[in-house]
Design a protein that fits this description.
Elements (H helix, E strand, L loop, with lengths): L33 H4 L1 H10 L12 H9 L1 E2 L5 E2 L7 H11 L4 E5 L6 H13 L5 E3 L11 E3 L1 H7 L6 E3 L1 H8 L2 E5 L6 H4 L2 H6 L2 E4 L4 E4 L5 E6 L11 H4 L2 E5 L6 H19 L8 H16 L18 H18 L6 H12 L5 H14 L6 H9 L3
Parallel strand pairs: 3-10, 3-11, 4-7, 7-10
Antiparallel strand pairs: 1-2, 5-6, 8-9
Helix pairs in contact: 3-4, 3-5, 11-12, 11-13, 12-13, 12-14, 13-14, 14-16
Amino acid sequence: MSVSAEPTSVEPRRHGSAPADTRPARTDTLRPHAEHAFADELAALAAQDDRPRPARWRLSPWAVATYLLGGTLPDGTVITPKYVGPRRVVEVAVTTLATDRALLLLGVPGTAKTWVSEHLAAAVSGDSTLLVQGTAGTPEEAIRYGWNYARLLAHGPSRDALVPSPVMRAMAEGRTARVEELTRIPADVQDSLITMLSEKTLPIPELGQEVQAVRGFNLIATANDRDRGVNELSSALRRRFNTVVLPLPETPEAEVDIVTRRVAQIGRSLDLPAVPDGVDEIRRVVTVFRELRDGVTADGRTKLKSPSGTLSTAEAISVVTGGLALAAHFGDGVLRAGDVAAGVLGAVVRDPGADRVVWQEYLETVVRERDGWSDFYRACREAGA
């Protein structure tokens, strides 16, 4: 028995399954969903988007790419960049979603995989909340479906007792589902996606029924292979995805730009000082992270040992945001070396034994000798280097 044509087959609706335009955004939300935070931009794009749209897409592929990469519309509306990186990467990702192939965003931690995933879902479906967060304890029910055990015990297996997963709802409603940290999920649970992605159907053997995906359904997964606790994807599952690798920022200027933009967005929600007051410190944090990450100084003259951490762009954003909070609440509101030193130390020294040696060597041989960095050197020493 098939229930493919009836979106109500997975009723009752759970949080995150209703169309985005029926859920008003709260003004006091700490982190609004992308479709709420950038609702004006999405509306402006939709109003001026006259290009063909795939079934159930809110925007055309061209408009989705514009939403992520930024641009100026014919009426003068400015679309802010959500992703700073190669245009072709975004174009391939968007094109993949317009086909029947699922999308796997692969990259080291901090390359904006989750950020891109959320904004792609918001632009395509108007709803980024159909999300499965992958962990070592993610059960198969989180991907397929579960049961309301009170109803199950009282009345036996029935549609009313079934609890649909975000992926199941996306299939029935023709939306985009998201699976974060796919390689964190146990391998046997990962493989529960194979039938959904290849046959576009989800069997419900307890009821003798199935949910068939309607047009518009697709799935975005994110994964990295650098952290511990990673479960490799089976070859059968990997074949169901088109893999797009998100690279680290190519230049220091690009990484500074990314950190500055994201910190400004986060800072506005936390009433922190404006980022331009701390651009010099942002540049120093990015320089430190890039040099230790690459194992060589920016001028290429000195080889360095790399610590165990990833020192990603995301970690730089966290360090600078914490520094701005310190400057706002315990300083004069201007980001200085003393505000970021402790955060840099915490990001670099993950293994107190080996990483502390790496950091001290870098501090004494590079930072101490660098012109204009004496205040940063002193601040790092005072932070406990």
